[in-house]
């Protein structure tokens, strides 16, 4: 008994404040959230009749919610593709010994430091669609105007005001903000590849392409997986950026579960907002938990 | 040889300019907007034709002063307190993880870290109910506690990674050389651990400072509303004026300290943020 206390005691004393805090304010609240989602508390008036999975069934049958889920998928795909491509490109450029590496690294990372709320202010303007002013003439602002002035007028579009593809426009600022982070991940990955490995491949007569295909990419795949997980779960949770660009959360074009949850929450429909919250939690868990299991298994080996 | 080098230079300069435009354009344009007169906001021109400080005046000493300055005070206070508590708790935890061996360590670490992936928004509803019942709604502690759950996991993660690299034998070596336990800890370990703790503090501060979801859903008045949430409540000087100029000015003011921190300590922050991910 005494021996047990000796091994457990000090560690428990050190970690228990954190554990208690997280258990009460995260895990217990999640349980409470699930409970609310199974009640009929659809108004501010307290009411807690148990209705089982009814709210979930209704949500999944709701065309608006299906649209929000589809939007979320599109957003995540574009966001992932964009950050991975740009992040890899930046890292690839910086990885070669060239002047100004520190400078470029700061510049790339700079967007990450700006909060979504602050940058959203300007993106709202940049991504504004074609507008018709009072005299009936078309007035362009933001990126559309910029594209027009550099002769790329054909690229003008309505950005986020499009029910099918609008959400992809929201990914543009998100990509801008986070490619620097993905770059930092890739850069660390590049640094982890021993120079001898490349030399050996070159001596064996590997072409540059084959060197990347068979030596560099396989070595980078764990980093890439981390990047996919990190960016993927950020995308599933994305709310503040959308809210900053389109202040009215109840806008069909850019509706994702997070904004829809907000609309329900503001409208005091706590049961539905809790249900959407739970669905988002499950979505994120589906992405992250297999990854955590996979990495912990790898470590054991 | 010489020609190709010049060519390389030119390519590099072109790339640098493009990169700078890409990275800085949005922020520069917020800055430009923050110096515009309200009448110019819809002109569609990028730079203001006459620079004005009226937006800054409005939020610092003018009509929006109450809204902005109180939220700035809230943001600074709440983020600093949350950061301090998070770093203290995370240091204890990370020390236990890095130094002590106890059964179930892995499970505890994973469940604690798993918190960081949960969507904040999925606990907003019960938190709102709870806070209203116990009177923490729209107060500083009402935000500090959820910020702890946001910042603790990543703080533990980064600190544990830092602590694992510290050569703890130094402590014993110092004791062999005649130092007391406390001296050994203070003179040998603290200087090595300090950079890690400092980096963690920056990352934690950064998360608390930029939070929006809790800020907007758990506050209702100037008593606790932090800046990112307050920006949503800005209105123009009159009902017909767009508040975009004032919002931009406020956005610039709250962004500058963060940008400076990141630029000054980018090397440490990058290593802190990538360590866990790359190792995995």
Automatic annotation (TrEMBL), chain A:
<feature type="transmembrane region" description="Helical">
    <location>
        <begin position="211"/>
        <end position="231"/>
    </location>
</feature>
<dbReference type="InterPro" id="IPR000515">
    <property type="entry name" value="MetI-like"/>
</dbReference>
<keyword id="KW-1133">Transmembrane helix</keyword>
<feature type="transmembrane region" description="Helical">
    <location>
        <begin position="106"/>
        <end position="126"/>
    </location>
</feature>
<comment type="similarity">
    <text>Belongs to the binding-protein-dependent transport system permease family.</text>
</comment>
<feature type="transmembrane region" description="Helical">
    <location>
        <begin position="12"/>
        <end position="30"/>
    </location>
</feature>
<feature type="transmembrane region" description="Helical">
    <location>
        <begin position="72"/>
        <end position="94"/>
    </location>
</feature>
<feature type="domain" description="ABC transmembrane type-1">
    <location>
        <begin position="69"/>
        <end position="292"/>
    </location>
</feature>
<dbReference type="Pfam" id="PF00528">
    <property type="entry name" value="BPD_transp_1"/>
</dbReference>
<keyword id="KW-0472">Membrane</keyword>
<keyword id="KW-1003">Cell membrane</keyword>
<protein>
    <submittedName>
        <fullName>Sugar ABC transporter permease</fullName>
    </submittedName>
</protein>
<keyword id="KW-0813">Transport</keyword>
<dbReference type="InterPro" id="IPR035906">
    <property type="entry name" value="MetI-like_sf"/>
</dbReference>
<feature type="transmembrane region" description="Helical">
    <location>
        <begin position="274"/>
        <end position="294"/>
    </location>
</feature>
<feature type="transmembrane region" description="Helical">
    <location>
        <begin position="165"/>
        <end position="190"/>
    </location>
</feature>
<dbReference type="InterPro" id="IPR051393">
    <property type="entry name" value="ABC_transporter_permease"/>
</dbReference>
<keyword id="KW-0812">Transmembrane</keyword>
UniProtKB/TrEMBL annotation, chain B:
<feature type="transmembrane region" description="Helical">
    <location>
        <begin position="107"/>
        <end position="131"/>
    </location>
</feature>
<comment type="similarity">
    <text>Belongs to the binding-protein-dependent transport system permease family.</text>
</comment>
<feature type="transmembrane region" description="Helical">
    <location>
        <begin position="143"/>
        <end position="163"/>
    </location>
</feature>
<keyword id="KW-1003">Cell membrane</keyword>
<keyword id="KW-0813">Transport</keyword>
<feature type="domain" description="ABC transmembrane type-1">
    <location>
        <begin position="72"/>
        <end position="265"/>
    </location>
</feature>
<keyword id="KW-1133">Transmembrane helix</keyword>
<keyword id="KW-0472">Membrane</keyword>
<feature type="transmembrane region" description="Helical">
    <location>
        <begin position="12"/>
        <end position="35"/>
    </location>
</feature>
<feature type="transmembrane region" description="Helical">
    <location>
        <begin position="244"/>
        <end position="265"/>
    </location>
</feature>
<dbReference type="Pfam" id="PF00528">
    <property type="entry name" value="BPD_transp_1"/>
</dbReference>
<feature type="transmembrane region" description="Helical">
    <location>
        <begin position="188"/>
        <end position="209"/>
    </location>
</feature>
<feature type="transmembrane region" description="Helical">
    <location>
        <begin position="76"/>
        <end position="98"/>
    </location>
</feature>
<dbReference type="InterPro" id="IPR050901">
    <property type="entry name" value="BP-dep_ABC_trans_perm"/>
</dbReference>
<protein>
    <submittedName>
        <fullName>Carbohydrate ABC transporter permease</fullName>
    </submittedName>
</protein>
<keyword id="KW-0812">Transmembrane</keyword>
<dbReference type="InterPro" id="IPR000515">
    <property type="entry name" value="MetI-like"/>
</dbReference>
<dbReference type="InterPro" id="IPR035906">
    <property type="entry name" value="MetI-like_sf"/>
</dbReference>
């Amino acid at each position: 008994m005494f021996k047990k206390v000796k091994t457990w005691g000090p560690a428990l004393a050190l970690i228990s404040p954190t554990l208690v805090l997280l258990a009460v304010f995260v895990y217990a609240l999640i349980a409470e959230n699930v409970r609310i989602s199974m009640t009929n508390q659809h108004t501010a008036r307290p009411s807690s009749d148990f209705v089982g999975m009814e709210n979930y069934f209704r949500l999944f049958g709701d065309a608006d919610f299906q649209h929000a889920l589809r939007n979320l998928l599109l957003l995540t795909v574009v966001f992932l593709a964009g950050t991975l491509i740009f992040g890899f490109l930046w890292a690839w450029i910086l990885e070669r010994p060239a002047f100004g590496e520190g400078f470029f690294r700061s510049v790339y990372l700079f967007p990450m430091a700006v909060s979504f709320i602050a940058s959203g202010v300007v993106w709202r303007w940049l991504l504004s669609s074609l507008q018709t002013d009072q005299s009936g003439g078309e007035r362009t602002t933001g990126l559309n105007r910029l594209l027009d002035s550099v002769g790329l007028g054909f690229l003008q579009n309505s950005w986020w005001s499009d029910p099918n593809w609008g959400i992809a426009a929201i990914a543009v600022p998100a990509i801008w903000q986070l490619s620097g982070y993905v770059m930092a991940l890739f850069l660390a990955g590049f640094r982890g590849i021993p120079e001898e490995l490349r030399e050996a491949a070159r001596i064996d007569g590997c072409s540059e392409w084959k060197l990347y295909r068979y030596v560099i990419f396989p070595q980078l795949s764990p980093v890439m997986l981390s990047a996919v997980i990190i960016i993927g779960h950020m995308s599933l949770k994305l709310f503040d950026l959308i809210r900053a660009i389109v202040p009215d959360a109840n806008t069909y074009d850019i509706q994702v579960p997070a904004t829809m949850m907000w609309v329900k929450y503001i409208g005091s429909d706590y049961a539905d907002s809790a249900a959407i919250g739970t669905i988002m939690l499950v979505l994120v868990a589906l992405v992250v938990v297999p990854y955590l299991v996979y990495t912990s298994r790898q470590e054991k080996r | 040889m010489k020609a190709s080098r010049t060519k390389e230079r030119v390519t590099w300069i072109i790339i640098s300019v493009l990169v700078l435009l890409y990275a800085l354009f949005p922020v520069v344009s917020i800055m430009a907007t923050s110096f515009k007169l309200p009448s110019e906001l819809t002109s569609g021109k990028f730079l203001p034709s006459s620079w004005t400080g009226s937006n800054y005046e409005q939020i610092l000493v003018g009509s929006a002063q109450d809204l902005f300055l109180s939220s700035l005070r809230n943001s600074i206070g709440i983020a600093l307190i949350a950061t301090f508590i998070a770093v203290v708790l995370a240091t204890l935890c990370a020390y236990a993880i890095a130094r002590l061996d106890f059964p179930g360590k892995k499970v505890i670490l994973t469940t604690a870290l798993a918190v960081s992936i949960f969507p904040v928004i999925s606990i907003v509803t019960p938190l709102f109910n709870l806070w209203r019942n116990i009177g923490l709604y729209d107060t500083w502690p009402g935000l500090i506690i959820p910020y702890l759950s946001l910042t603790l996991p990543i703080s533990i993660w980064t600190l544990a990674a830092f602590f694992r690299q510290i050569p703890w034998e130094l402590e014993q070596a110092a004791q062999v050389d005649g130092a007391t336990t406390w001296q050994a800890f203070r003179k040998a370990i603290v200087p090595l651990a300090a950079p890690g703790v400092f980096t963690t503090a920056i990352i934690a501060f950064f998360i608390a400072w930029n939070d929006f979801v809790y800020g907007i859903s758990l506050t209702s008045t100037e008593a606790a509303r932090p800046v990112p949430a307050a920006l949503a409540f800005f209105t123009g000087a009159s009902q017909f004026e767009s508040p975009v100029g004032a919002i931009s000015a406020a956005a610039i003011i709250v962004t500058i300290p963060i940008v400076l921190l990141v630029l000054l300590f980018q090397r440490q922050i990058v290593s802190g943020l990538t360590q866990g991910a790359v190792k995995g």
